[in-house]
Amino acid sequence: MRLTLGLLFLLGVSTVFAQNIVLLDSDSVPVKRVMVSNITMDESVFSNKEGEVDLTMFQEDDELIQIQHQSYETVILPKAELVKLKTILLTTATNRVGVVEVIVNAKTNETKNEIITQTTSISREHIQQQAPATTADMLDNTGQVQIQKSQLGGGSPILRGFEANRVLLVVDGVRMNNAIYRSGHLQNAISVDPNLLEGTDVIFGPNSLVYGSDALGGVIHFKTRDPKFKIDTNSVEKIDGSLRYQSALNARSANINYQNGTNKFAYLLGVTQTNFGDLTMGKNRYHGFDDFGKIENYITQVEGVDSMVTNKTPNTVKNSGYDQTDLLWKGLYKAGKHTDLSLNFQYSTTSNVPRVDKQNEYKNGVLRYGEWYYGPQTRSLLAISSETKKRTKWFDYNNTIFAYQFIEEDRISRNFQSEIQENNNEEVAVYSFNSDFIKHLDSARTTKINYGFEGLYNQVSSAAFSKNIITGETLSDIATRYPGNGADYTSVAAYVAVQKKIKNHIFKAGGRYTLTKMLAKFDTNEIINLLNIQQKELSTQALTSSAGYVYRKGNFKLYSSISSAFKAPNVDDFGKIFEKKGDLTIPNPSLTPETSINYEVGSNLIHEVIDFDVAGFYTQIFDLMTKLPSTLNGDSSLTLNGDELNLVSLQNNGAANIYGVFGAFRLKFNSRLNWHTTATITKAYFKGSDEPVGHIPPLYGKSTLTYKWRKVKLSCYTRFNARKKWSDFSDLNDNLDESVDNFGSPAWATLNASVFAYINSKLKIQIAAENILDAHYKTFASGISAPGRNFIASVYFKF
Predict the structure, then answer these.
(1) Torsion sign across C-alpha atoms 59, 202, 608, 83
(2) 467 FRET partner, CA 20 to 30 A, in 509, 558, 641, 783?
(3) For the whole model, what pTM was predicted?
(4) Same domain, yes or no, for 57 and 127?
């Protein structure tokens, strides 16, 4: 309370005035009902009858502000320049429809008004206001993306019922998905640091036309910060950063960034160090299940021997913390009047990350594992890119990227009171090339062609061994997770898309051809010998297409689309050998790609009083790859290391239907107070039966009441999930043991509050209280409970 009062005092003694501008037409007549918004269009205000607009709600001086009206040309300028001008003269639009250059799809330079599926954009400003611990939490805070966590160092996005390797992650135009992205839950999203992001675009629904395999549920495109060139005599040298503390995670984060540049060369260096302690979950179990989620016991070493001890604080997840370090270096070079070259280096690594759901797995009444953790999870990226904006015979715009990525994943486990530790080490080297072109066929820019090419090569290395933790002696090689003699995954593709504008109408269509080849070279071990596989090639091809229509008038948009997509089997799908909770996943040499057709209709409006964004979608999946019981030489189980294991494998299992509705509404009581809510509901069943498809979350969303006063933004919000019934779970593909037996996943809601204040141009402060009621809950399919009452304090600074 003292901190809040002190903050308000500082604001009170600060000299802060309303930052008004006036909008006039060519005859100096005020123009009313002009929409003034930020680039992501999640903050907007309209001019009054005197043409006046108060820009105070847009906090950053260098934030780009767009001014748009259907009868006038769109103006996009930094806030500071608009305030300096004070009076803005609007030019009559020749086509009566202002074009807003809000780029959402960075590969095709499509604006938000051209996209034919549901989208959401997260600005850097909103990332700071939410102060997420990880990028997964950043996505979760939108209320439009569901996040699953198996451990504190986790975060697997779910889009429209698709998860893991059916959702494509992209960073700065380079696809992150690689040959070992699995069909279960993934934590790779957290290897991108939210403190180093300029923004993030989420494009929902199939996007295989432009992005290729894996983009069934959608695309999440992370965009890191760019350095700035020196334009005039003003220096671009800048140091900025942040400090953050979160009580429920005992988490401390420090970020520091330095940038400098000339008119030809600019660079930025950013580093973030985050330390997570043990998570404390909510204590109040309003759902009525008193023991749900509690950690009753944990393993500790007593005189060098594993001992299962009683957890005296069962709402604390013992041994769940980890550390993470992230680094970004980006350099831009102006090679010519029309061409910029970029060198982009990213590095992310962690300490050992405890696998919480495994650490709390019981066998015969005793915790099964003495230890189970991921070794340091490392992601490196080196990308060289060229961006050219010049009208030529073949293109008006081109972006070409050559990239190299190196990913390392280790898994270390040991049974309770065993001296033998098992180590699985995976390494993936990814070489990629993609070049995207845009060509306008007429001077009015009504006809546009997008086309591009992509090439990928993944080299997978997998090793496994056991060792004695007492002597340190390596004992023997054990079965590797992936083919022990290596695996190669190659993909080449080309696409073309055409867009035609006719007054208020946009028509779009395109196609893509992809050829994929995989070579898996298995080593010798008990399971592989039984399968009688030494080397296996798998070649697939896919032809996908998309067509859509957009009607736009003013700030109203109506769209519809039909799109196909595909998911080619990768090394994880085909060659993985994996044991989990009594099920042993084995390779399936007959696996083929799964494909989908998606139908979508949506509409959105930005108005003075109410905004809305709604979408309905229906997806048919064919040859769905799903985990099902399998046999080996006629047997459905086998004994391995003394354990009786049921055999399962990924199989193409007929077809499934996924359908759902998304809605977002914003009610503007006045220029300061507004209410915003989002909700998504998804259902999915296998065709011809009532059997549910896995990974489908229940109804979820977020509702926020926001009040803005000068340099302060006050928010009160709730995040919520409905119950998922026991009968809606998929036995093999959902985490049944992470729900309540014969009940399902309990409904939950949290109450949260936040204060975000701009002390001055150099300092911003965020104070928040999350889960104020200290409610216990688990996000659907998560192996770890969510944080309880969580106090957050963040400071953002510049020099």
Answers:
(1) positive
(2) 783
(3) 0.90
(4) no
